[in-house]
Each structure stands twice: as structure tokens, then as C-alpha cells.
Amino acid sequence: MTGRPYVLLSCAMSIDGYIDDATAERLLLSNDADLDRIDAVRAGCDAIMVGAATVRRDDPRLLVRSERRRAERVARGLPPCPVKVTVTASGDLDPTARFFTMGDGAKLVYCPSGVADKTREQVGAVATVVDAGDPVTPEAVLADLAGRGVARLMVEGGGSVHCQFLTAGVADELHLVVAPFFVGDRRAPRFVEDGRFPWHPGRRARVVEVRQIGDVVLTRYALSDRCPG
Ligand SMILES: NC(=O)c1ccc[n+]([C@@H]2O[C@H](COP(=O)([O-])OP(=O)(O)OC[C@H]3O[C@@H](n4cnc5c(N)ncnc54)[C@H](OP(=O)(O)O)[C@@H]3O)[C@@H](O)[C@H]2O)c1
Question: Where does this protein act, in terms of pathway (predicted)?
Fold first, then answer.
């Protein structure tokens, strides 16, 4: 495969831009209908990526939930679920996390050279650990994924990972869902951190869709010319 994978970022946030609250509980921002939409988007991708902090905090499964969608993928010659991808600088990952234990598909862990041995000790039995150089960049991850046949990557957060793909200018599409409430606590994480983004008042992103899904609103932004619509 030539070129980097198509990169689709997906995020749900509160009206005031928070992607979680500051409590130990996982904050539910989407609703059932939106979670089903996300499931369909996942089913259309070759790989799903989250940062290591999201693996630790949310313990997500990152699987295609719908049996019909899994069967459709298999009928197309694909594995039932996309490859799972995470990135860590600390190597501090628990092999019993659902990221590793749920689903039979491939799991990839990208890390800097300096922690590759430690990361392999931690999760090498349940995932493929990739020494991605130092520092690990979105471009390096994408180049490696392309080499593994990944043509379409869904990045599901958290803020640190989203921010890096956006500021590196390697995102093609953003699905941003706004939940109808405020978090109102600056200790909570926001969609992105400070940074220099390719989209600013002088270069506005293109809205390709706005859809109400129950009580949330999805806005789809085209971030590159590769995004259709
Ligand atoms: N609302 C949503 O749509 C949504 C979706 C996903 C997550 N979340 C929320 O987002 C929050 C977590 O976001 P976050 O920004 O704190 O963390 P994150 O993006 O999930 O993960 C950050 C971690 O990933 C690793 N990492 C990121 N970039 C790296 C790089 N270039 N090289 C090496 N390692 C790298 C590091 O792991 P190490 O710490 O292991 O070094 C870093 O601490 C949680 O509260 C979660 O609930 C919300």
C-alpha cells in the first residue's frame, strides 16, 4: 500500500468542550443511537486507535458490537473487528485490560525505543509491540500501519492523541458529537490541548454533515481533500 491511511477522528464532548469529567467514573456522553453509529463507523475501518491513558482509564473493548456488521466484514474477507492500536511512552499497560483480552484480532502497541523492552515485558504476550523510534509521531505510526495493510484508521481519543493527529496535519475527517450538558470542571480533560492547528480563523474546516441523533448532535468536518462530501 502506498500513502498513509485515511484518518478519521471521533470524539464526543459536552457543550463546554469536555470529553470526560474529573471523577473516577466513566462519563457517558453519547446515547445508544450514537453508539450504534460509532459501531458502523468502526466496522468500516481497518484499525482503531486510542491512547494508553484511555486504555487505562476507560478500559474500552474497541470491538464491533453488531453481529451483522462483524459477519459483513468476514464476508468481505476481513477479520470480524478492526485491528486495535495504542501508543505508550511509559509502557505502563495492563495485559488484563479489555483492549488486550477482548476479541481475537491483532493488537498493536507503539512505543519509543527506550521503553520497547519494558513494554514487551508488560504486554508482549498479548500484543505486538512496535518500537516506533523516539519520539513516536503520528506519521511514524501511520507509516507502520500502512505497511501492515491498514488503509483506514479511526482514532477514538483521548485528547492527547487527537491533538497530535490534528496538529501534525494528518487527519482527514472529524466526527464531533456534542452531548446536551455541561461538565463545568476545569480539572476534566478537554477535546484537545493547546497547539498550533492547521484550521484556525484564517483557514476554516469544511462542514460536510450535521445530524441530530436523539439528544446529541453530530458534526462531520472534512479536514483534507481526501474526505468525500
Ligand atoms: N469523549 C470521548 O470521545 C473520549 C474518547 C476517548 C477518551 N476519552 C477520555 O480521554 C481521557 C484520556 O485522554 P488523554 O489525553 O489523557 O490520554 P490519551 O490520549 O488517551 O492517552 C495519552 C497517553 O498515550 C500515550 N501517548 C500519546 N501520545 C504518545 C506519543 N506520541 N508517544 C508515546 N506515547 C504517547 C502516553 O501513554 P503513557 O502514559 O502510557 O506514556 C500518554 O500518556 C480519558 O478521560 C478518557 O475518558 C474521551
Answer: Cofactor biosynthesis; riboflavin biosynthesis
What's the rounded Cα separation, in Å, for the pair 115 and 78?
A: 32
Query: What's the pLDDT score for residue 229?
Result: 81
Q: Is the CB of 14 under 6 A from ligand 1?
A: no
Ordered by where they begin, the domains of the chain are: 6-222 (3.40.430.10)
In the block, which residue shows the cell 476554516?
Answer: 204
CB of 60 sitting under 6 A from ligand 1: no
- Tens-digit pLDDT profile for residues 4-53: 999 999 999 999 999 999 999 999 999 999 999 999 999 999 999 999 99
Q: What is the pLDDT of residue 1?
A: 53
8 Å CB contact between 173 and 220: yes
Q: Residue 189: CB within 6 Å of ligand 1?
A: yes
Residue 168 scores a pLDDT above 60: yes
pLDDT level of residue 110 (50, 70, 90 thresholds):
very high
Ligand 1: residue of 9, 19, 130, 185 to mutate (most ligand atoms within 8 A of CB) is: 19
Cα 74 to ligand 1 centroid, rounded to whole Å: 30
- Helices (DSSP H) in the chain: which residue ranges? 32-43, 52-58, 67-75, 98-101, 116-123, 138-147, 159-167
Q: Is the CB of 138 under 6 A from ligand 1?
A: no
Higher pLDDT, 38 or 228: 38
Residue whose CA is closest, atom 37 of ligand 1? 88
For the CA of 138, the nearest atom of ligand 1: 31
